[in-house]
Amino acid sequence: MGNFILRVLVNALALWLVTWLLPGVSLVATNPNIPVAGNGTLNTVLSFAFVGLIFGVVNALVKPIAHILALPVTILTLGLFAVVVNAAMLWLTAWLSSLTPIHFTIDRFWWTAIWAALIISVVSMLTNGMTSRDRARR
Question: pLDDT band for position 5 (50/70/90)?
Answer without folding.
Answer: confident
